[in-house]
């Protein structure tokens, strides 16, 4: 098994290379990690790895892989008030979920464009465009796509059907690293707990969290590191979501109220530190 993992790692390194600041040893650490793998139901795979040294420190990575071809779909859930990801997911009878996009912690509303069907709930603040919002989740009858986003695109989308949730930055598009030069440098470079959604070449959807703020167990990652991680894991398109204390990955039926990553809002390396959020991305049956 070890030899097989090493061979896979070499093939990955040859095919995708590394991003600036990431090394071949980082790619090897991801592929050769001892991943815990479970398949709680058809079309859904949960993976977790604690990697002792990745991106200059320990990392705690959780991933849920979704196969829409197995009768599953992705959607955006909007709560009437801020609640934990686990509570919103349960209310929507979800089978898996991840926290959504950026929001005003005092008012409880999204600060990024949010539209369900033809109803615009929130629009993107100018400060969010300047700092990080360069992508969006688009959910229509044909499925979910990750698309580029800017002021003009937002203006054009206001009257269209479907659900849109803007976020950012958009990290990967068609397997290539996106340009983050328009984003705030400190946001890009600083290591944080991170949440992301990605799609693969064969149509799978990945919900990914990287824990952080625990130097001994989970150092967190910056945006280039997160993009590199997702690329090694097979992501073709990838969008960063709200991170930090909001970072939460949830799986129906799992212990600890379904929270599978190590949430940090309580300051303890456990599953009980969820932050209340206004929206989530969730998986349900078609």
Automatic annotation (TrEMBL):
Residues 92-284 form the Phosphodiester glycosidase domain. Residues 1-21 form the signal peptide. This is Phosphodiester glycosidase family protein. It comes from Bacteroides ovatus. Pfam families: NAGPA. One of its GO terms (molecular function) is hydrolase activity, acting on glycosyl bonds. Keywords: Glycosidase, Hydrolase, Signal. The keyword Hydrolase applies. The keyword Hydrolase applies.
